[in-house]
Amino acid sequence: MADTHDPASAPAAPEVVAVVDIGASAIRMAIAEVGPRGDIRTLETPAKPVPIGRDVFTTQRISRPTRLEVIDVLKGFAELMETYQVRHRRIIATSALREALDRDTFLDWVYVRTGIDIEVIEPIEETQLTLTAVQSVLGPRLKEARDVLIMEVGGGSTELMILHRGDVVLSQGLSLGALRMQQKLAGLDPRPATRMRLLSREIEGVVQNVAREFDLGKIDFFVSLGSEMRFVARTLGERAGENCLTLRRDAFASLVRDVSRMDVDGIVDRFGLPFADAETLSATLSVHLMMLEATGAEQVTVPMVSLRDGLLLGLASLVAGRRGSDFSRQVIASARALGRKYHYDQKHALQVGRLALKLFDFLQKDHKLGQRERLLLEVSCILHDIGMFVRNSAHHKHSQYLVKASELFGLRKAEKDVLSEIVRYHRKAIPMPTHLDYMSLSRADRVTVSKLAAILRVADALDRAHLGRVRDFDMERQRDALVLRVRGVDDLAVERSGLKAKGDLFEDVFGLTVVLEEASATS
Amino acid sequence: MSGYSDKDFINRELSWMAFNERVLEEGEDPTTPLLNRLGFLSIVSSNLDEFVMVRVGGLKQVQRSGAAQSAVCPTGVTGGELLDRLRAAIAEQVRRQYACFNNEVRPTLVREGLSVRGRAELDREQAVHLDNLFEEQIYPLLTPLALDETRGLSEVPALTISILVRLRKAAAKDAPTLTAVVPIPAALPRMLIVPSVSGHCFTLIEEAVLMHLERLFAGHEVLETALFRITRDADMSVEQSRDEDFMSAMAEILVQRRESPVVRLELSADASPWARQTLQKMFEIGDPDTFTIPGPLDLKAWWSMVGLGGLDRLRYPAFRPQPSPDLADDADIWETVARRDVLLHHPYESFDAVTRLLREAADDRNVLAIKQVLYRTSGDSPIVNALERAALAGKQVSVLIELKARFDEARNIEWARRLERAGAQVIYGLAGLKVHAKALLIVRRESSGIRRYVHLATGNYNDVTARLYTDFGLLTCNEDFGADVAAFFNMVTGYSQPAAWRKIEVAPLGLRPKLLHLIRRETERAQAGRRGMILAKLNSLSDPEIIEALYDASRAGVKIRVNCRGVCCLRPGVKGVSENIEVVSIVDRFLEHARIYYFRNGGQEEYYLSSADWMTRNINRRVEILFPVEAEPLRKRLADVLDTFLRDNVKGRRLGSDGVWTRSDPGRRRMRAQEAFMQAAEAEAQRVQQRTPRQFRPLKPAEGA
């Protein structure tokens, strides 16, 4: 996670933040200033090519020369962060590092030499960050369209997202990467035409797989991302609002045909691209084109943003103390969809969520957790009982593995691990050193699980009857107790007995006994 | 279009000689004040030194290697023929230089009470003074080299005076003669002051040594002496593949330079045929490269007399660089630049504005970082001092020091080390490229956020030459400039691959296409029947592709006016090639150094300043910056400046289609650009000073002071 400060203390003066994206072919940074309202002013955008993808996609490992290059680049970037006295930073790596077998030693190697902690993000978060960036440019246009397809071809894979009326309905990583395709073709017939045929066959198959899951003909808004597409858009696109260009389908198709007939030197000469980019240009553009041709869209929309803009927006909202509201909405929506799948008690989930969040906000000073954790709590309230779908007894354990095995839009694997543990501890045993899943989490994550599970247990106890009785109450934090004065309920015996069973963890974690008092409506 | 013939170009080396001739003419000009005449004659010598070292050396290398003459500028002159013509031209310039020095300048100096005496002309008191000086300060540093014909040659230093001595053991008439060389240590001043009842009296250090030769060769009889000076080939660049320790590679070059071939031998007029033969054999050099000098060797030493105190009547009236009206002493420099761009025209406007900016940046607690390219800077530079202080104060200081700045290497290494010790990040240039751009970036945190102050210029960060060279500098807070210059530093420090520039253009990547685009745009407009115009003020114009583009433009009807101080390979006024091109050169008391480019662009006029001349070397192998000047009042000012330069009819010389430069006839309306700028700067500064203050600003001591 980003090293952030208390989100409650919103800074008045602009703050400088930095994001670094360690990709398959380059390391790129953006240094920006974030104003008090979350407005972003980009200061610098340095980038250096580093062939991590080339190494990993061939040998599954990062070679020593590449490691040294990475160190060099990161040291330079660290100097730049120093220049601007960057307060918040986030350094992430994507597909290439995700797949490297030696990634853990590599991460440690980098950390030891540069003090930089690289966070390897999951495809799902990558997609979500990209979506955030796309939304910042296209905003309402994504909702006006019926079905939107957003895609980006990376070095190792192609990420694809389909939105219906603004909500994500499909999010997939396809096994088509520009570098990988290029390597597959390496050593084969060097003639562009033959290569193109092989390439087309490969892409064709993947497009058909997607078409089986979603009727691509319904897509009426096609969004392409990636540096190659931004380059093409700058070359022959038309302006379509701030930071956004469009390409007509036929113009794009004829360009791709031109490029596919050229060899790499020709591409370098014609477009003035660096050699490494020129090598993968044809494959990348072909994937975009063939996907486009499978849809009903007449043009490609290219927002001039990248993953880094998504990272920046995320940091900006943290700095500005704002909730990344739209994104949270997406996560909650996808959690509810999962809940429905397992016939959850929607009213109970909602009530537990309300209570838990109220407790979470009230206890801010005690737990010092951020917005991201608040979101995890909210999601755990939705999902804590889904294990009952399998069997009532030990349902907390069923909930745990169901959560772990399901796709939840916008949550990284590490976050889902935390989430599944919260869910698991919503009843019965509290975390113990003998619990393997729990102990395999980092210390910081174990603390998060304990705090959030403690709150969830109390909230769940307060709705033990699944009747939504506890609605109107005040809280008072005493030296060793949290007193809840509940109005409009005559007898709180059920809830008290619930608390007796489930308030243990809360007492352990916060050092507070939860005391329920009936407050007369008139007092 | 192309298809121009060799005849359409002027040979680069010959054009350079023509430039030095214009400098010589300033020395010969009786209307130039006496000491300034001496100054110009002295510059002729130092120019020739550099030319012989670099160009003649290079041509001889080419000749030796047997390769065809490099086709840098296609003029159809072969290498051998060119060398002959250059030697003849050098000999002729030396002849004129000394004729002027011996017959006019020196006698007049003596009449004005300023004499440089030979050892025979010294009076008794002066001789005693020199005896003491020799014993105490000169003798301990002398290292005579006894030479046989095979060793010791590389120890004869280049560019300083040496004495060749023929000796014999005393009282041994039959003993074989010995040969020795006494190099005069470069660490000692060449011009020695001797006591005098009236006026200034000097003698040359070699005279003092000659007076005391017997102290060096006790027990020997000195049979004859001759003064000489050698020049070595210096056209050598650092082997950049060995980058790990650039500093030691550089130190190696400094040694190598001492061992590279001798390309010129200068001899005193009294040298005997024996002396001439001995030296020629010793340094493997023939008659064509041996020059007998009709007077004291190396007039560079006379430069130190140009500034002597109490002789103002013999110099151009003193000019004090004026404060920029935008940056009066009490103005808050940050606030001013944040409000509007400031253009500085040196030396008319003082360079203090820049040193002050750096000084304040070093002491300002809101300044986070300072990044700068230092190419050639002065000895005890206030700039290096400010950077050092900033680094010690914990600011992030990144300095790119260009160690390959010819002839300055030894001095640069010293500052580099000093800055490193203070904690600055010092980068020693880029592999294979000389960084010639002049750029400064100051990152400052202000209440509204980060603000980047940028200084881009045509001249080096050197407070000494900024008093002698005419240059422009732009101070701006413009966001696009800030982003570009930050990205520029990321590029040269290796933090990033080159960026897509918003405003500036950078050589060697995009400068050539950009310049060609700007020129061709005028051509296209002219072809479409619109007016096209290009104005260029620069130091050298020698890139064939640019020249051909200018020819194309001229043929399309674009009016082109070039103010070119030095080498110009473009041949103007040739029918069907360059009829619409006019070339003027100004050589005056300040060295013209600014590069200004104007393109009419169909009425949407564009003004640019640049560190780069239109030379192949600058465009292809150096890191240079071209930047637009966009604020309206500044553009107006550049328009006036360009116009003034092009109208100079006192110091301006016009290049004919025959390649000959001729002075213009001032006629009734005399216009001398440098004079006009001095007067304007003084008038402007006075106007600002007399302005009734509208607010009272208490002067506070600087922070941390």
Features:
heterodimer, A: 523 residues, alpha/beta, Nucleotidyltransferase, domain 5, 3 domains, six-stranded mixed sheet, 18% strand, elongated, B: 705 residues, Methane Monooxygenase Hydroxylase, Chain G, domain 1, polyphosphate kinase like, Endonuclease, Chain A, ten-stranded mixed sheet, eight-stranded mixed sheet, globular
What does this structure look like?
- The complex is a heterodimer of chains A (about 525) and B (about 700).
- Chain A is built from 23 helices and 16 strands.
- Chain A is of the alpha/beta class.
- Chain A has 3 domains: about 15-120, 2-Layer Sandwich (Nucleotidyltransferase, domain 5); about 125-305, Nucleotidyltransferase, domain 5, CATH 3.30.420; about 325-470, Hypothetical protein af1432, CATH 1.10.3210.10.
- In chain A, α11 packs across α12, α17 (about 370-385) packs across α19 (about 415-425) and α21 (about 445-460) crosses α23.
- Chain B is of the alpha/beta class.
- Chain B folds into 4 domains: about 1-110, Polyphosphate kinase N-terminal domain (Methane Monooxygenase Hydroxylase, Chain G, domain 1), CATH 1.20.58.310; about 115-235 and about 260-305, polyphosphate kinase like, CATH 3.30.1840; about 325-500, 2-Layer Sandwich (Endonuclease, Chain A); about 505-690, Endonuclease Chain A (Endonuclease, Chain A), CATH 3.30.870.
- Chain B contains 19 helices and 27 strands.
- The radius of gyration of chain B is 27 Å and the shape is globular.
- Residues about 70-75 and about 235-250 of chain B have low confidence and may be disordered.
